[in-house]
Design a protein that fits this description.
The complex is a heterodimer of chains A (115) and B (112). Chain A has 115 residues and is mainly beta. Helix content of chain A is 0%, strand content 51%. In chain A, strands 2, 5, 6, 10, 11 and 12 form a six-stranded mixed beta sheet that branches. In chain B, 0% of the residues lie in helices and 59% in strands. The N and C termini of chain B lie far apart (38 Å). The chains are: A mainly beta (115), B mainly beta (112). Chains A and B meet through β5 and β6 of A and β5, β9 and β10 of B.
Chain lengths: 115, 112
């Protein structure tokens, strides 16, 4: 069965510094997708970045990049030049290869950016 | 551009009362639709998903049900709420190709 693991319940980062949020996954599928979402205190889930299992290059979206290491089954999110508005919960998720319909979410990491 | 709406934003209901949460999507046709629940401080639990009108798949057995009466409308219901139904309910629509899901603002439900 597919599984997503986020081992960091909470993280601190100084404003303007970079931070890496860890995510490991487990699947026996060859085709899958990996996602990161941000959930601020308002509760809305905001899509940040997507990486397909066959994508050879790491995905990037502005200050967000996904460090995809397929052999290690890890998909870490890197946020560069942290801003105070980056303080939020961050969830890693995976779409399994059997169906494009469902996402499996990790337990999340709470990031606090210090001024 | 696509927009997803959910209402109400907050709801306080007594145990045993009925529930109806509505979700509508604009700007896309035949989307996959999803209902999730999030307990306080926890991750998301998929409750239902739908790939078309009248097509509902249930992920977790419970006293909740879902319906999709129109292409871009998804409704979450209960005949009798339990205390354990309290939580944050999120609706999402999904892209067929990548599976990326986009979420609505959510409904915070408290059952007393």
């Amino acid at each position: 069965a597919q599984k997503i693991t986020q081992t960091q319940p909470g993280m601190f980062v100084q404003e303007k510094e970079a931070v890496t949020l860890d995510c490991t996954y487990d699947t026996s599928d060859q085709s899958y997708g990996l996602f990161w979402y941000k959930q601020p205190s308002s509760g809305e889930m905001i899509f940040l970045i997507y990486q397909g299992s066959y994508d050879e290059q790491n995905a990037t979206e502005g200050r967000y990049s996904l460090n995809f290491q397929k052999a290690r089954k890890s998909a870490n999110l890197v946020i560069s030049a942290s801003q105070l508005g980056d303080s939020a919960m961050y969830f890693c998720a995976m779409r399994d290869g059997d169906s494009s319909y469902k996402l499996i979410f990790g337990s999340g990491t709470r990031l606090l950016v210090r001024p | 551009s696509q927009t997803i709406h959910q209402w109400p934003a907050t709801l306080v209901q007594p145990v045993g009362s009925p529930l109806s949460l509505e979700c509508t999507v604009e700007g896309t046709s035949n989307p996959n639709l999803y209902w999730y629940r999030q307990a306080a401080g926890r991750g998301l639990q998929l409750l239902f998903y739908s790939v078309g009108i009248g097509q509902i798949s249930s992920e977790v057995p419970q006293n909740l049900s879902a319906s999709r009466p129109q292409d871009r409308q998804f409704i979450l219901s209960s005949k009798k709420l339990l205390l354990s139904d309290s939580g944050f309910y999120l609706c999402a629509w999904g892209l067929w190709a990548s599976g990326t899901q986009y979420f609505g603002p959510g409904t915070r439900l408290t059952v007393l």
